[in-house]
Design brief:
By secondary structure, the chain is mostly helical. It has one domain. It has 21 helices and no strands. It is globular.
Length: 413
């Protein structure tokens, strides 16, 4: 067996176990990368392949927003936004969508956004007669709509991998394609599940007691806003500048850094960096060329967008979008386009991003599980689980169709 074949086999094992096992696939990926590099007689490939810049960026961004979460700033911002639901009940689902999207976009990502919003959303939905299924879909799709912003941890992963294959500087298109896809899906859910037929006033008694913004919260909002402005306006590096902003909050005693460090998603960071090491070894040993050839047998130039969205969506239903699917499939794009004989690398990459993300409402995903756990009436837990499972699986097909139909038009924008 050649080193290329061994590395491809290791990747396929990692993907399979990420779908069927609870073991952190990042740990497995690093061990497999070492075994392959040992077999190839090139043990230095493991350390050479560690994504130091990606790790620094993920750690800095997640630390900053973990500080904002533990000192209560994110919760208060979400509560203030939720007070907007005091109006027509038919608008309530879109308020949930926009709140989750806004929080996800500015940095915490979809998991933190859903964790913050869905308990309140389920309580509000129960009082306005909104089905829990609709509540879950609007919150989860809203969070996913903002999940590929340049400031989100998942957006960082996608953009870093795309820059590595020559598709840098496309951050706005990465965010916009994902946002539009989730707006379409959210709109369909809203219509299908009776959103326009909700009647009456929301009638909520949301008081500011216990949710008032203090000096520490306003300082946190100011620091985060200044960080975002610096990244956009001054071109500051995302990770190091996030660390600098976090240090300001810690030194000013605006948040407890010990609690924030514990709150950081280390499991996801290890998963992403571990898979990146394995993919790096795959590239160095020639396994990536074999993997690309395997994928190329599934598609033609005319079906490439739909096929890649479907395949990545199917794997993402059972595995991690950010930790497994994006680091594994985005590096294949240039070779894949060359082997099938045509296609736009950017829109193929966007199809992978959208296809992998749009299924993340399944109860097998963290987002879906959070929604199920937040249900007010325990009798509705099982029906919601079943509904989200069916919806998540159906999104593999919907994502493929959307990408197949729309990516050509999107490329011309």
């Amino acid at each position: 067996m050649t080193p290329a074949t061994a590395s491809l086999l290791a990747l396929l094992i990692a993907i399979a176990l990420s779908c069927t096992s609870r073991v952190n696939v990042g740990l497995l990926a690093i061990a497999l990368a070492w075994l392959v590099s040992l077999y190839a007689g090139r043990v230095e490939l493991v350390t050479a392949g560690f994504p130091a810049q990606l790790f620094l960026t993920l750690a800095g961004v997640t630390l900053l927003f973990a500080l904002a979460e533990v000192n209560g700033t994110l919760g208060r911002v979400a509560f203030a936004a939720l007070r907007l639901v005091r109006g027509r009940a038919a608008l309530v689902p879109w308020v949930f969508f926009l709140i989750a999207c806004g929080i996800s976009s500015v940095g915490p990502g979809s998991i933190a956004s859903v964790a913050l919003v869905v308990p309140m959303a389920m309580a509000v939905g129960a009082r306005t007669g909104m089905p829990p299924f609709l509540t879950a879909l609007m919150v989860a799709n809203g969070a996913n709509a903002g999940n590929l912003s340049p400031f989100s941890a998942v957006g960082v992963i996608a953009n870093t991998n795309m820059a590595a294959i020559g598709l840098g500087g496309t951050e706005v298109k990465v965010w916009a394609a994902n946002f539009l896809a989730h707006v379409v899906v959210g709109g369909a859910a809203y219509v299908m599940l009776g959103g326009p037929r909700l009647r009456g006033e929301a009638g909520l008694e949301l008081t500011a007691e216990g949710h008032a913004m203090t000096a520490s919260h306003w300082t946190t909002v100011t620091v985060v806003a200044a960080w975002i402005a610096g990244v956009i306006g001054l071109g500051l590096p995302l990770g190091p500048s996030a660390f600098a902003a976090a240090v300001i909050l810690v030194v000013a005693r605006m948040a407890d850094e010990s609690a924030a460090i514990k709150r950081m998603p280390w499991n996801a960071v290890l998963m992403v960096t571990g898979m990146s090491v394995l993919v790096s070894v795959l590239e160095a040993t020639g396994g990536m060329a074999l993997f690309t050839t395997l994928l190329a047998t599934l598609a033609t130039p005319g079906s490439l967008h739909g096929v890649m969205a479907f395949v990545t969506g199917l794997i993402s239903t059972y595995s991690s979008t950010s930790g497994v699917v994006l680091p594994t499939f985005l590096p294949t794009v240039p070779g894949l386009v060359a082997q099938v004989g045509g296609g736009d690398p950017l829109t193929v990459a966007l199809s992978i991003n959208v296809g992998a993300s749009i299924v993340d409402v399944s109860p097998l995903s963290t987002l879906g599980a959070l929604c199920v756990a937040a249900v007010v009436d325990p009798r509705q837990t099982q029906p919601l689980f079943r509904s989200l499972m069916i919806w998540g699986l159906s999104m593999t097909v919907v994502g493929g169709v959307l990408c197949q139909l729309l990516m050509g038009a999107f490329a011309r924008l």
